[in-house]
Specification:
Radius of gyration: 24 Å
Structural class: mainly alpha
Distance between the termini: 25 Å
Number of domains: 2
Oligomer: single chain
Largest sheet: 2 strands, parallel
Strand content: under 5%
Length: about 525
């Protein structure tokens, strides 16, 4: 008997969400074998990783085998699916932490921070943790990065949901010409993600980084996660390692469709012709030069010699910091909270904007800002030339009005969320710098705060309710804010109820007709 026949005999329910969640559970059951294998080598307790595998595999297999995709899978179902996939991942990734003796709140915080690729930690000192747990901690970031691709380009199109949910994520990315089937395209994107990961890992090994540190650094760099397995900063690594890390942070924050066109379609000019990519490079370089000038001014005021070596180290540090915050990775090589106050304002702006669409980074994204800029510019031009009609264009192509509207909504909701969260933190007694630092680090999934929560700050001592707020903000930020907010509107759940009701009525009709 063929596998397809067995599957058809097992089908009992029509539920896409349950089927996809079962697939996720089986995937994580296999992924848990990786840190479990390292426990054998290091002589550590394998229980935190082996214990969840049987229930995940059995439950996931039953869900996958007994459910079939819904024929009327709608937008509301897709939004719920995406939210539940993230929540399920949070829950699964939390289990090894709890079984390792970490407090439940800190375990959830660490899991959510990793999966959303935020990179803030509530563990405090991590040197005492098992190596296998540190590998799992790094893996969660890598899994979170690739999940962005899988969810938005594979799972949803696979069940007939299409691209409507992640239209914002593809704004201005040049994907209108992407004619390949979406599921096949996603597989290509995943291959590129793994290829970049292997390249990063191999180069780190060549540069002398030990196996485990190279593996974990690779996991957290290409995913723009930012959680290291050491308490100190990237400054402990050589300049060569820092430059390589900078490069792969940048590649992780670059539109993966551009990587696809370069690798698969051999379009060598694709990066140069993409406006978002050019703007991102120009932005990072411009901010780095401005920061460097501020630092030089401070060095001169302090009487520091402006030797070539000092200037090189200073520029490398400001460029690394800019790329790290801009790609929402969160690595650091120098404590930028000690830099001039003007630098802090610029770095906050860098962290809020983020990097490219269709990448692993968070933030508002350059393409959205470009669309908003063109829209505002056309508005002013329309005031002068009242009879003229101006279209918003990206890379020579007209942007749909619906996409412009959704981009404006995302921007406004993003800024509102940042502000409201900062006000909440101020109510708890934190100053404005700390409050906005906490808000930006969570909502932008950047992992690096400001003030007392900067590079050397510690989230471990935060109260339980503040940790819960940050957990919610990290989840909201990873869902692109609007998707999360929509779920809390009455109209959304009314649509869910009506959809469920129509499905029940359709099923009763089919039963009466004997279909």
């Amino acid at each position: 008997m063929r596998w397809k026949d067995i599957h058809e005999r097992c089908i009992r329910w029509e539920n896409t969400t349950v089927k996809i969640l079962g697939l996720v559970e089986m995937m994580f059951a296999l992924l848990l074998l990786v840190p479990a294998a390292f426990t054998l080598y290091y002589g550590e307790d394998p229980l935190p990783f082996l214990a969840p595998i049987p229930p995940l595999m059995v439950l996931g297999f039953l869900q996958y085998m007994t459910c079939i995709e819904s024929k009327n899978f709608r937008t509301v179902n897709g939004i719920i699916l995406v939210a539940l996939v993230w929540m399920l991942m949070f829950a699964i990734c939390t289990v090894p932490y709890i079984l390792s003796g970490i407090a439940p709140v800190d375990a959830v915080f660490e899991a959510v921070s990793g999966v959303t690729t935020t990179g803030i930690s509530a563990l405090g000192e991590i040197d005492s943790l098992d190596t296998s747990l540190m590998i799992w901690r790094s893996m969660t970031q890598w899994i979170g990065g690739i999940t962005v691709v899988i969810i938005f380009l594979y799972f949803l199109p696979m069940v007939g949901f299409g691209r409507s949910l992640f239209q914002n994520e593809l704004a201005g990315s040049g994907t209108s010409s992407f004619t390949q089937r979406t599921s096949k395209a996603a597989k290509s994107f995943i291959f590129i993600y793994m290829l970049l990961s292997l390249a990063n890992f191999a180069i780190l090994l060549v540069l002398g980084v030990n196996f485990v540190e190279a593996l974990c650094l690779m996991f957290t760099t290409i995913s723009t996660g930012g959680l290291l397995i050491i308490n100190s900063s990237m400054a402990v690594y050589s300049d060569a390692v820092q430059w390589v890390t900078m490069l792969f942070m940048f590649l992780g924050g670059t539109n993966f469709y551009l990587h696809y066109r370069m690798i698969y379609l051999r379009e060598r000019r694709v990066y140069r012709t993409n406006s978002e990519f050019r703007v991102m490079i120009a932005w990072f370089l411009a901010i780095s030069v401005i920061l460097f000038l501020f630092m030089v001014q401070t060095m001169m005021a302090d009487g520091t010699d402006l030797t070539l070596e000092n200037c090189y180290v200073t520029f490398k540090n400001v460029l690394f910091t800019t790329v790290s915050l801009g790609t929402t990775t969160g690595f650091y090589v120098d404590d930028f909270t000690l830099w001039p106050s003007q630098c802090m304002i610029l770095l906050m702006l860098v962290a809020v904007i983020g990097a490219s669409t269709s990448s692993t980074s968070g933030g508002i994204k350059f393409s959205r800002l470009r669309i908003i800029y063109e829209y505002i510019k056309n508005g002013f031009r329309g005031i002068v030339h009242t009879n003229a009609v101006y279209a918003v264009k990206m890379d020579g192509k007209t942007v749909d009005d619906s996409l412009i509207q959704s981009t404006l909504v995302v921007f406004m909701m993003y800024m509102m969320t940042l502000t409201i969260a900062a006000v909440v933190f101020m109510i708890y007694g934190y100053d404005i710098v700390d409050s906005f630092g906490l808000s930006i680090s969570a909502v932008s999934n950047g992992g690096m705060g400001f003030g007392n929560f900067g590079p050397t700050g510690n989230y471990h001592d935060l109260s339980t309710d503040l940790k819960a707020i940050l957990i919610a903000l990290m989840w909201i930020g990873r869902l692109e804010v609007v998707t999360a907010v929509v779920m809390f509107t009455p109209g959304f759940w009314k649509d869910v109820w009506l959809n469920s009701r129509s499905r029940r009525m359709a099923k009763r009709y089919r039963d009466r007709q004997g279909l």
